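Quick look at the format.
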Amino acid sequence: MSTTYTPVDQDIMEYLEAEKNSLSTRVFYFGTGTELKEIKGKVTDLERKNSYEYYLKFDSGNEVRIDRIISYNLKPGPAYDEYDAYGLQCLTCQAGYDF
């Protein structure tokens, strides 16, 4: 899994900015490597770091890099395709058979 920042579509940025004032948010995301994590709470800010990386900041003090978000309030996020490919990886195996 890539850990370098991948730019996120502007539509997703606008959606995250608009949803920032929701009372409760549930996010599934990739932590380190392929580690799946979940966070619940109120998003307090969409912060820019290093002039190009964006992070969601939660009222708990935790933050999530937005390009690692798998789902945001059950809607697919920027890393959903990466998650889907990771989950389907075993289907590419031929189990030793020649087809």
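Next, a different chain entirely:
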Amino acid sequence: MVCPHWLSCILYNPLRKTSTDRLAVLEQSRIGKNSVVLEIGAGNGFFTEVLAERAAFVHAVELQQGMVKKLRQRLGALAAKVNILQEDISRHDPGQSVADVAFLYYVFHEVDDQDGGSRHIVNAVKPGGFVVLYEPTVEVSRRKMDLSVRIFEQLGMVLEERKDGLFTRFARLRKVSA
């Protein structure tokens, strides 16, 4: 279930900020100062703001108008480094080779058409770039995460790292060809 915009306080709050090492997540995702990032499910900006601080540019895709409004308010001076698209990744193709990293944090399990969405995501990643998936263990079983990884592998992505933690499942896949 997609978190409604009126409940966005659960996505961005002091407890989550202190319990989530966002910079460590960006390191694990291979996001650096020269990275162009395609963020799927930007929500109200919990990761978008640190992505914009660290990366060269962010294409933030968000489905809900209410979340987009909150995201715009949160970004302030960082807004110049973020292109916000109110779209469904299943139906919107961001373009070919526009990002070094596609960043999906607790969102892929909510994409209705995962096959369509994954095709658009892989198309948007440059050769040598990454798709990184983070999913909540409470909602996504190991089997379901493996199925998500397989969807991307069938599109030519190669699994580089896969971890299951107490709260989060993680996979980083590399695009090896165009």
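Strands lie at 36-40, 57-62, 82-86, 99-105, 125-136, 157-164, 168-175.

See the schema section for token definitions.
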